[in-house]
Design brief:
Structural class: alpha/beta
Number of strands: 18
Low-confidence stretches: 70-83, 450-467
Shape: globular
Distance between the termini: 18 Å
Length: about 475
């Protein structure tokens, strides 16, 4: 093994076992070379190798810093979690008292005859007539309801997205996506060999002219959109924008995958894009946010001409729903549990946004009072990766860097967005309040200092002895 790789292995071991913490700054390369009795050129290669492994991030004029959460091998469709005690990366809302609401539905399934039917065989992609009727009721909005016969089922929303994309976009095909998009879509695209094409955004989401231009440049196989409470920006497209997108889909012969996972939080949400172009839009959704991530089901509303291909993708990918989860979801819909939990979560978002307004007052934050996440454009001179590292190491809070959502040049323009997404859903309100306060204090201190109580001063600490 070449010398620079051996040294990089030793630095990586120090990061993995905690001797080097997220946010620690490595010494200048010439200092590193002197300490380890190696040539400057070898030190440059060591730092390059560490960056290639995702262990460090370099900032022009400031130095090289250990990243917040060094990536480890894991399932392609897994959502990363932070190493810090307060995790504002994961974003799974749990309403107070929802377990008590859900218990009767599960108790009904405990009867031996009912349970035997639920677990006797894998659920089909088409579920059961009762399940399709329940799903259509869950997904219905004022002025629109899906045809129950158009509903297919996946194990969760991620698998629903994967099946839709696998059915629509061949390997090597081009998929238009928002320039800032759900990171899971990036992982799915990489797994399926799909090329992502970033589409410019405004306050309502994807700009129709950006979609048209991308398709003219080279044909797109499909487009993935989040028109309601977009993740991470919380943008919602109005009726005129949706009508314009629908007309564009028809005129360009394009098909869209519409992700409505967070739309349930918006009481007066516009009708989905699928209502404007039902023959051109595959709608995906799930119960993981509405209800609970531990026992969930993914939904797809699929136009007839795509139904067989999507059903085959679900079967071949082993992405169909479990029989027990599908039976439970059907009961929770019918007995009103889903509606009660949704109402509780809508009230919960309002309470959590009051904390955001108080703790991040004066900051540049993009969000909606109905969303469970917010997009914080960091004050200068903070850089996103450095802030994420400092937040984990100094404040004990894990947040997601803007680059995790960016497509093609990270934000679609060739630059890294100096922003973070904060998930508001998972911790109890008191914990969230304290975490937001720590983040605000860290932002105010700047990258060259840390507020009292957040650990040692940020910046020029020498590299601790590694070997």
């Amino acid at each position: 093994m070449e010398e620079y790789r051996r040294i990089a292995d030793r630095v990586e071991a120090a990061v993995r076992d905690g001797r080097l913490r997220p946010g620690d700054r490595l010494p200048p390369q010439r200092v590193f070379a002197r300490r380890h009795a190696i040539a400057n050129s070898t030190a440059i290669r060591v730092y390059g190798e560490l960056a290639r492994r995702g262990l460090v991030v370099g900032e022009v004029g400031r130095g090289t810093f250990v990243r917040a959460v060094p990536p480890l091998p894991g399932p392609a469709l897994a959502e990363a979690t932070g190493a810090a005690p307060v995790d504002l990366q994961l974003n799974y809302p749990v309403a107070e008292g929802q377990s008590a609401l859900m218990a009767p539905g599960l108790a009904a399934l405990a009867r031996s005859d009912v349970l035997a039917e639920a677990v006797a065989r894998p659920a089909a992609a088409t579920g059961t007539p009762e399940a399709r009727e329940a799903a259509a009721a869950v997904l219905a909005r004022p002025g629109w309801a899906p045809d129950p016969d158009a509903v297919l089922f996946a194990g969760n929303g991620r698998q629903a997205i994967a099946a839709a994309l696998a059915a629509l976009v061949p390997p090597g095909g081009r998929l238009g996506v928002e320039a800032l998009t759900y990171p899971l879509v990036k992982a799915v695209a990489e797994t399926l060999g799909i090329r992502l094409v970033p589409l410019a955004l405004d306050e309502e989401g994807v700009r129709p002219e950006a979609l048209a231009a991308a398709h003219r440049a080279a044909p797109l196989a499909a487009v993935y959109l989040q028109p309601t409470l977009h993740n991470p920006l919380s943008a919602t497209a109005g009726e005129e924008r949706r009508a314009a997108l629908a007309e564009l889909l028809r005129s360009t012969d394009l098909t869209a995958v519409e992700d409505t996972t967070w739309a349930f939080l918006l009481p007066d949400a516009p009708a989905p894009l699928a209502a404007h172009a039902p023959e051109r839009v595959l709608l995906v959704d799930s119960l993981s946010k509405r209800l609970a991530p531990g026992l969930t089901v993914g939904y797809l509303v699929v136009p007839g001409r795509f139904r067989a291909a999507v059903a085959e993708a679900l079967r071949s990918g082993a992405w169909t729903a479990g029989g027990l989860a599908l039976a439970a979801a059907t009961r929770w819909t019918g007995d009103g549990t889903v509606a009660e939990v949704v109402a509780a979560k809508r009230a919960d978002t309002a309470a959590r946004h009051a904390l955001v307004r108080r703790r991040l007052a004066g900051q540049t934050v993009r969000t909606s009072p109905h969303a469970y996440h917010c997009w914080w454009e960091l004050p200068a001179p903070w850089r996103a990766e450095t802030f994420v590292a400092a937040a984990a190491a100094r404040a004990g809070v894990a947040v997601t860097p803007g680059g995790a959502f960016a497509v093609g040049g990270r934000d679609g323009t060739g630059t890294a967005p100096d922003a973070v997404r904060i998930g508001l859903a998972s911790p109890p309100p008191a914990v969230l309040d304290e975490a937001l306060g720590r983040l605000a204090a860290l932002a105010a201190a700047g990258p060259e200092g840390a507020p009292e109580g957040l650990g040692e001063a940020w910046g020029g600490l020498p590299l601790p002895p590694l070997f």
